[in-house]
Amino acid sequence: MKTETISAISTALGTAGVGIIRMSGSDAISIADKIFDRPLADAPDRQIIFGHVTNSAGEIIDEVLILIMRAPKSYTRENVVEIQCHGGSEVLREILSRTFEAGARPAERGEFTKRAFLNGRLDLSQAQAVLDVIQAKTSTALTVAQNQLAGKTSAKIRAIRTEILDVLAHIEALIDFPEDDIDAVALDDIDKKIAAQIDAIKIFLANQRSGRILREGLETAIIGKPNVGKSSLLNFLAETDRAIVTDIPGTTRDSIEEFVNIRGVPLKIIDTAGIRNSDNPVEKIGIERARDCASRAELILALFDSSREISAEDLEILNLIDGRSAIILLTKADLPRAIDAARFENFIAISVKTGAGVEDFLDAISEKVGAVNAEMNFVRDEREADLLRRAVENLQEARATLKKNIGIDFISIDLRAALELLSEITGESVTDDVINEIFSKFCIGK
Asked: Nearest-5° angle of CA 147, CA 150, CA 153?
């Protein structure tokens, strides 16, 4: 089947040693042949070919390496050509423009992976994992994404579907042979099998929060009055001088965001302006943003300077975190303590200068996040979670019908509905609108 040939830059924008332009489609090789100074029609698969890409006048644009992967042995299961050139933005744009002149069209967001899905190389769960691999922020997140890309999640979902199909086949056999009595043992066996699949799905749902944290990071706000060590803590966690640290109050006037890796779990750390009364209009905006960050953060790191007595600003911060998921840190533990520690129900004394209390602090974060194991079965996003919840509801309805002894044929309706929902996760049954929405989140070139 002839397919349109698409082309895009597959490497990140900016200056680099190497840049890659990828083409996929029926005419990918012939298009590359038009802009390359060596014949490619009979070029071997999966062998690097050195030469030059030229402009319409035959002038050299760049010396390149070309890799040809003929269908179906390619990422998209179509003819694929990758042009590896120097990584300057101008040379990439010129070569990309030449592919368009020769007959390719610009690729849409995620269109290469979309074609891989539509052509059966990846199921929908695996296709989404491609984006997670690219965006993984920790080694644990990468392992989870690689497991999903390898089909671990899909295999679990298919195993659940197989068990439900087995129950459905059993029920339909009983319906087809009504002269056979349906004894209590058979009904109890069906009930147990359905219950087992409900439990299997609930394992996925139980790990929804952990999966989201690994993919997106746990939104964590650092709050405190000026000069309590907020920026120092951010720099310590980020292992770089991300924020300016001075003795001058109000240095941080805007929110600074940084992803940090805490024992394999990504935290989206937000360093906020010091909370205090201020007449400076710019600082006041920063303080309001700090309060807003504290109101929506999933975890708050509330800092209090242990070398100073408690202040009105400190009391305001205690009110802000009341009832919230927070870790209270008494900073500057290397200095003599002046604060009344009895005002705090639970706290960790910490010094980023000496490292005192750091392990206790990291333990506290791990406890707040909860157990995260890369080998867990994870729900990727809210769409999948909703499908799984609805599948559980259908299976529970099937069990309820079974117990009421309304009629065994009614059970098959709920089982089929659950199967349909599970098939939407792997993409065996999914609408075009859902597919387009999923791949619109990808970058162009992937």
From this structure: 60
| pLDDT per position as a tens digit, 84-106 | 999 999 999 999 999 999 999 99
pLDDT digits (tens, 9 = 90+) for 111-128: 999 999 999 999 999 999
Q: How far is CA 276 from CA 37, 220, 302, 343, 386, in A?
A: 67, 20, 14, 19, 43
Integer Cα distance of 94 and 101 in angstroms? 10
Q: Taking Cα atoms as reference points, which of 102, 103, 119 lies closest to residue 111?
A: 119
How does pLDDT run across 281-319, given as a tens digit for each residue? 554 555 666 677 777 888 999 999 999 999 888 888 888
pLDDT attached to residue 140: 85
**DSSP-assigned letters across all residues of 49-60:** EEEEEE-TTS-E
In the numeric block, the tokens 């906020």 are attached to: 272
C-alpha dist (Å) from residue 206 to 104, 199, 267, 318, 342: 46, 10, 20, 31, 37
> What's the whole-number mean pLDDT along residues 358-379?
83
- CA pair distance 289, 275, nearest whole angstrom: 10
Q: Which residues is 219 bridged to in the sheet?
A: 268
> What gap in Å lies between CA 391 and CA 393, rounded to an integer?
5
* Torsion sign over Cα 46, 49, 55, 60: positive
pLDDT of residue 312: 86
Q: Directed axis angle between helix 184-206 and helix 382-404, to 10°?
A: 160
* Whole-Å CA distances, 210 to 203, 266, 302, 308, 356: 12, 11, 23, 38, 29
Is 0.70 topped by the overall pTM? Answer: yes
Q: Tokens 């009504």 sit at which residue? A: 178
Cβ atoms of residues 300 and 291 within 8 Å? no
Q: In whole angstroms, how far apart are CA 371 and each of 140, 202, 297?
A: 12, 16, 20
